[in-house]
Structures are given as structure tokens and as C-alpha cells.
Design a protein that fits this description.
This is Methyltransferase type 11 domain-containing protein. It holds the Pfam family Methyltransf_23. It comes from Candidatus Fischerbacteria bacterium RBG_13_37_8. InterPro entries: SAM-dependent_MTases_sf. This protein has about 300 residues and is an alpha/beta fold. The chain has 2 domains: about 120 residues, no CATH class; about 160 residues, Vaccinia Virus protein VP39 (Rossmann fold). About 35% of the residues lie in helices and about 20% in strands. The protein is built from 10 helices and 13 strands. The strands form 3 sheets. The chain has a 7-stranded mixed beta sheet with strand order 8-7-6-9-10-13-12, with helices on both faces. A 4-stranded antiparallel beta sheet has the order 2-3-4-11. A two-stranded antiparallel ribbon has the order 1-5. Helix 5 links the parallel strand 6 and strand 7. The longest helix has 18 residues.
């Protein structure tokens, strides 16, 4: 296993950058977090002489990790170091709010596209265990899920999901793509975005959700900073987006943001209705969970 160096900005390809943080992975501040978070599954020797470095583009402000795991290392991270049992447990044992969130999300698709569910083809890009796909299928959409993990593919197939491991395996273009917590993990996110949007129908919609990195620069340049599961999580969250950089990133792929509709809640009162209205505009102008429509 080796580390890959990414010297240029992933959004604008600018070579000019500021280094916000740079340290050996075996520095106790970094290593203690990794060792604890991954439950002692990482062999420390693998990360000897490797660097955890966070850079900021001087042109567009995008933040990213310059050194990342190679393909072999990424496979080891997601297949071995991350607990499959814990990952599945978080989904299968979730409370009602988790599933209702999926239901609202899935219901929004039909509203945005102004079509009935049976007329809509959707793709969940990086579907994980397939729970979002199951919800979309229950609503009547034509659903495909793309996932690289064999364990997760098999789980989703058992639950009736049409699973693909490569975007080119899609039988036909789709109206909607769900891309939830994916782009922060991908070595070349722009190449991946361009690839998947080739399979989006004219006027189609993609929802991109990533961790919000608006406070990361201030945090990581603090003398008291310690790593955490956040927008610049060591090894995993190799791309760090803010609302501004996410919109700029999507614009390069001919995608423009649209305002999401207000969807009713099973908890409904005047206060919640007011919060929903405020949330609509917050999500449109500040959030890193954004609906984009492809330019026709």
C-alpha cells in the first residue's frame, strides 16, 4: 500500500495552495484518533512515514487532503478497517426519525420532477446497505443502486434492489440521482461527477450531500485542534466542501442549484411549519445538501 499525492485543487485544478495542517499519521494526536475510531484494526506500520496534510486552494478556497490512500489502501479501509457490523447496525436499528427523513427525501423527488413515481427512474450512487433504495422502491420508483462493496451489494440484492457496480451498467438514463455522503470520499470527485451526470436525463436532478466544512479552516489551524469524525476526517473525508465550493464544484459539471419544496411532517404544528420555511431558505443558500438540475 502506498499514498497518492494530490497537489492540485480538485475543483479548479489550481496549483497554488496554503497548507493548513501537516503532520505524520503516527503523530500521537492523529494516531490516537485513528486507532480508537477504527477499533485497533489499522497496523500502525502501514502509516509510518506517511503524512496527513490538509491544503486550501488559493484561488477557489476548496480544502482537501493532499495525501490519500491508494486503491489497495482504500479497499482495505472500507472492507476491513470500518466495521461492517457497526455500519449495518446504525441503519437497521435506527429510530423513526431516520426512516421518516428518507421518506420525506424520496417524496420530494416526485414533487420536483412533476411526475408520478412510476414514471421516474432513480439511481442511488454509493447506496451503502441500500436502505434509501428500499424506501424509494416502496414509493413506486424504478430504482437502481450503485455500490462497490460486495457485502453491501449482496445485502441490497437480498432485499430486492437492482444493484450495479459500475455506472455503465445502468440500462438507461435516470431522472434523479441521490449522491449522499459520497463525494467527500472520492479521489477525483469532479471526474466522478461528470461520469454519473452523463446518465442523467436532460432536466434531471441530482442531490449531493456532503459534510459541512465551513468551520474546518478555523478549527484545524487552532493550536488545540484534535481530529474527529467531521468534514476533514483523516483517511476518509479527503475532500472538504462548503456551500460555496459545492455550488462551484457542481457548476463545472453544468449543474445549477434549485430550491427544495417544503414537505409536510408527521409532526406538524405552527412552530414546525415556521422552522420548515426557514429551513427551506437555509438549505438553499447555506447548506451542503443541495438539489441541482442539469442544464438542458
Amino acid at each position: 500500500m502506498e499514498m497518492i499525492y494530490r497537489p492540485n485543487c480538485c475543483i479548479c485544478n489550481c496549483k497554488e495552495k496554503s497548507i493548513l495542517f501537516s503532520s505524520d499519521f503516527v503523530n500521537p494526536v492523529i494516531w490516537n484518533f485513528l486507532d480508537s475510531y477504527y477499533c485497533h484494526r489499522i497496523d500502525k506500520d502501514i502509516l509510518l512515514d506517511q503524512r496527513y496534510e490538509v491544503a486550501k486552494c488559493k484561488k477557489c478556497g476548496f480544502i482537501w487532503q493532499t495525501y490519500i490512500l491508494d486503491e489497495q489502501g482504500m479497499k482495505q479501509l472500507y472492507d476491513e478497517w470500518i466495521s461492517k457490523e457497526h455500519s449495518l447496525h446504525k441503519k437497521s436499528k435506527a429510530g423513526i426519525d431516520f426512516y421518516f427523513g428518507y421518506a420525506k427525501d424520496v417524496g420530494t423527488i416526485s414533487i420536483l420532477l412533476k411526475k408520478n413515481p412510476y414514471q421516474i427512474r432513480v439511481l442511488d450512487y454509493g447506496m451503502g446497505w441500500g436502505y434509501w433504495c428500499m424506501m424509494a422502491q416502496a414509493f413506486g420508483y424504478n430504482v437502481h443502486g450503485m455500490e462497490l462493496s460486495i457485502n453491501r451489494q449482496q445485502f441490497a440484492k437480498v432485499h430486492g434492489i437492482n444493484v450495479i457496480s459500475n455506472i455503465s451498467d445502468l440500462p438507461e438514463p435516470v431522472d434523479y440521482i441521490n449522491c449522499d455522503q459520497v463525494m467527500e470520499h472520492i479521489p477525483d470527485p469532479f471526474v466522478s461527477l461528470k461520469e454519473i451526470t452523463r446518465f442523467l436525463m436532460p432536466g434531471g436532478i441530482i442531490k449531493i450531500t456532503v459534510p459541512d466544512g465551513k468551520r474546518i479552516e478555523k478549527q484545524i489551524t487552532s493550536t488545540h485542534w484534535i481530529p474527529a469524525k467531521n468534514a476533514i476526517h483523516p483517511l476518509e473525508h479527503i475532500n472538504c466542501f462548503t456551500h460555496k465550493s459545492l455550488v462551484a464544484f457542481a457548476a463545472k459539471a453544468d449543474l445549477f442549484p434549485i430550491t427544495r419544496p417544503i414537505v409536510s411532517s408527521y409532526k406538524c404544528n405552527i412552530l414546525i411549519m415556521f422552522k420548515n420555511i426557514i429551513a427551506k431558505y437555509y438549505l438553499r443558500y447555506f447548506s451542503t445538501s443541495i438539489y441541482f438540475r442539469i442544464i438542458e
